[in-house]
Fold this sequence. Notes:
Layout: H1 22-28, H2 34-60, H3 65-83, H4 91-108, H5 110-115, H6 125-130, H7 140-147, H8 151-162, H9 168-174, H10 178-202, H11 207-211, H12 213-222, H13 228-236, H14 238-247, H15 254-262, H16 267-272, H17 277-290, H18 297-303, H19 332-335, E1 395-397, E2 402-406, E3 416-419, E4 429-431, E5 437-439, E6 445-452, E7 455-460, E8 474-476, E9 482-484, E10 490-494, E11 503-507, E12 516-518
Antiparallel strand pairs: 1-2, 1-12, 2-3, 4-5, 6-7, 8-9, 10-11
Helix pairs in contact: 1-2, 2-3, 2-4, 3-4, 7-10, 7-15, 8-9, 8-10, 8-15, 12-14, 12-18, 13-14
Amino acid sequence: MPTPHPPRPSYPPPGGASGESDDSLAARTRGGPDDEVAQATALLITRHWQPAHEYAVICLASSSGVAAMVTTAAFHQVLDRLTLGEPGAGLRPRLLVGVRDTVRLWAAEDRISGVLPELQKPAGGRGMRTAKSLTPENRQLTERSFNGLAHHARAMLWHVEVESEPLTVPAGLLGLDPATAAAALEEARDKLREGLVRAHRDLAPSKDCRFYNRLLDVPIRRGGALLPDVQQHLTDCRYCRAAAEQLGHFEGRLGILLAEAVLGWGARRYVESRPGRDQQQTVRVRGARHRGGRPGGAGRRLLSRIPSPGRRLPGGPKAPRALLTGVGLASAGLLTTLLAAGMWSDDGGADPAASTSAAGGRGSAPDTDSATPPAEASTPPDTAQLPTATHQTRLRNVAADLCLDVRGDAKEGAATELAVCSSDWTQQWSYGEDGLLRSVADPELCLDSHADAGVVILGECADEGDKRADDVRYELTARGELLPRWDDTLALASTTEDPGADVVAKVRDNSAGQRWVTDAASAGPGSLSIAGTETPAARPVELADRTS
């Protein structure tokens, strides 16, 4: 319970060493002398300004002065509600959500976005403006559970798990002694899990899902194996598979889960930017090695037992990939409307293994005088057989009759778009048997459709086994669709059929706008074959349609 005069934590809360809790400061903003109101307000702003401003930069994809304007507006909204009697505990997640919603609201107002160009970036305001929902579909159970917690429980979880701060920080912000704070944290974790299990049961789409409710929770909690019939159910039920995946985050990965459930937009980038995260991960890894184990604990071991694409269940056939899609960062509805982005610059970390090269970066292909005649295509022109990693080709959208291009220079975080087909290196791509779709202009970069909730940008290529491996890999269907491995219910498409249209991952609908053809497939008179390059038709990679 809060004490009248809580001890000062060993690590003072952000914004100074005041022993007052956030709730106590919030009470002072509701009345009293003006100087006391101003002092209490200043302390609250000082404690929470920096993280809120950093998240505003992420939401806007810009560090300009507009980020400070957005942060100020979010503080006004939250502080105004405090004066009306809202509790002061758990301010941080409320402020961050206020920042996100402010960016989206301002971007939706043409009069505001017209004078603030920073709101028109596809990685920020423009993408948020068109999104139907900012809460990923596969995080809604966690969102419901978190919002059902008391404010002090939200504060404990957010500061320890998401912000990666020592327990003494939320203890100081809440006015709790260390022992009480430790107990409150454990209780908050238990209640969050109970709420998730209850939400899974209450929102279950079928009786089978409700029946398997506890059969999912108990083994995951204890780190044991799922029963065979539960595993079989997960192969067929996307809803329960998402619930099992969320439950698996409670050992070592709860911060990512909470941020994605509460913030959605830019959540992973925000979590990875927290100052205490690197130190906390180092401590966890050392502890795991000391115990002779691996980081992640029972939850991660259990996650490895949840059926995944391509795995065989005991005594059963290979599960269709369409039924075993990975859990993405955003819902399908969100992905259909997001615009291409260019703000992610530090995701991943795998050492890319370049499989092809091009000289000079962005520019033109070699002179046409030295062109090698393209081989006659052996496949129909509506089949997108991509070349091996040693060859290159353009990708032409069937509906728009435009080519996939990089907006501006080929660099990490650059957005992709449709453009009039040309000999620019940025329109040339290579496809490896490992599913990587590399940019010939910079072979260390691949198409990434997951880093920013389904928008397609250039990101670092990732090795097999890397956590980002499926984000930059694609399956090619016989119809010429490119399906992201992280969720093959989606397909790469453009937002419109006009030059400059952004390229995104949309819900797969078998339309012409989601089909791509290559120079190799169209070789012949009037084709898009690239002059001066080795013909892609020399050795095409034929991929079976695993999902049609």
